[in-house]
Write a structure and sequence with these properties.
binds flavin-adenine dinucleotide; 7 helices; Elongation Factor Tu (Ef-tu), domain 3; six-stranded parallel beta sheet; Ubiquitin-like (UB roll); alpha/beta; binds FE2/S2 (inorganic) cluster; 327 residues; Rossmann fold; 18% helix
Length: 327
């Protein structure tokens, strides 16, 4: 493994960076904190300009990278690895933001349980215990440059749980779903800002598919509050069978003033919930005005975009909408 020197301007700070590792992670390992937020390529807060040297992109389709960035040798440090010594224009932080105290852990898989066709619950033991705010996610390093984001569905502790949908042909999800008890993986956390905030406003949570993972973590946290505010949870999936972790969700919701609305696209004959997309169920069932609520949304990009669109149309301030789009 080749090691290169990365010099930052204007500070003059220098850190060593491994060839196969992203610059953000190498910097952190050396105690140097570069700006970041999502850690995987969507937000753009880690953009830096390469003044000298050669590099490779680990995620050429990263949503944060525009063609104009490439023309200007702008990179995202969370998805760029060095191929030579580098000089970068990038600010240096005094430390990580308070809500993103990211560190690396080794997780040992203790359970891989199939909950529905293609949906696995993975439980890892971590030492020391992980610390995060419910709603946040981890980045798993799955060998080579393969890495993927998965949201915690448990509360912080020494055992941490994830939900993984296996996609046909999906490199990361297949690697995750095939893990066997005793296997060790490297994970970094916590990332993401769609985490539960203390509020007196009524709360609405909307989950699509495995988007229920961060929503369940937040409901579990809400259920421990003294006098929690009213909570609506909308949970949608393709079929009733795909509505996994329903018992855990219902149990946590019993602890306070909550309503649960389920929606499926392909109902069975006995289905009593909503039929159609979960965004349509929100539109049908949730009383107006929607600007009254604090919103949390998680799941596939199409579902998150559909919900954001109807919230925008109803004039919900963006500061009250917290979302993780799984792609
Ligand atoms: C914030 C966040 C939280 C998520 N939480 C969950 C969860 O709790 N449960 C769950 O089942 N899924 C979750 N996902 C989706 C998950 O990370 C994978 O995108 C999904 O499992 C498909 O990956 P794949 O490797 O099977 O498919 P592939 O087709 O190989 O990859 C699909 C997606 O992976 C991402 N990707 C590709 N290359 C890279 C790269 N180099 N670095 C980072 N990302 C890359 C892209 O979004 C791409 O669209 C989450 C995604 C995000 C962004
Ligand atoms: S930290 Fe978000 S794109 Fe790099």
């Amino acid at each position: 493994m080749r090691i290169f020197n990365v010099k930052l301007l204007p500070s003059g700070v220098v850190f060593p960076a491994e060839e196969g590792r992203d610059l953000l992670r190498s910097a952190r390992k050396a105690g140097v904190w570069l700006p970041f937020e999502c850690g995987w390529g969507s937000c753009g807060s880690c953009k830096a300009t390469v003044v000298e040297g050669e590099y490779a992109e680990l995620f050429p389709n990263a949503p944060a990278l525009r063609p104009r960035d490439r023309q200007r040798r702008r990179v995202i440090t969370c998805q760029t690895m060095p191929l030579s010594d580098l000089v970068l224009e990038a600010p240096v932080l005094n430390g990580p933001p308070e809500d993103l105290q990211v560190r690396e852990y080794v997780g040992v898989l203790v359970q891989n349980q199939l909950l529905a066709p293609e949906v696995h619950r993975l439980v890892f033991r971590v030492d020391p215990a992980v610390s995060f705010i419910p709603g946040q996610y981890a980045i798993f390093h799955l060998g080579g440059s393969l890495r993927r984001a998965y949201s915690m569905c448990s509360l912080p502790g020494s055992e941490v749980e994830f939900l993984v949908r296996r996609y046909e042909g999906g490199q990361g999800s297949q690697r995750m779903a095939d893990l066997v008890p005793g296997e060790r993986v490297c994970l970094e956390l916590p990332y993401g800002r769609a985490y539960l905030r203390r509020t007196s406003r009524p709360i609405v949570m909307v989950a699509g598919g495995t988007g229920v993972a961060p929503i369940l973590a937040m409901v579990r946290s809400w259920s421990t509050w003294k006098d929690p505010p009213a909570l609506w949870v909308f949970y949608g999936a393709r079929t009733p069978q795909d509505l996994v972790l329903l018992d855990e969700l219902e149990k946590a919701l019993e602890q306070g003033p909550a309503r649960l609305v389920l929606a499926v696209n392909e109902p069975a004959e006995t289905w009593r919930g909503e039929t159609g997309f979960v965004s349509e169920a929100v539109a049908r069932r949730l009383p107006l005005p929607w600007s009254h609520y604090e919103w949390y949304v998680a799941g596939p990009p199409a579902m998150v975009n559909a919900v954001r669109k109807i919230l925008d149309a109803e004039g919900v301030p963006i500061t009250q909408v917290h979302y993780d789009s799984f792609g």
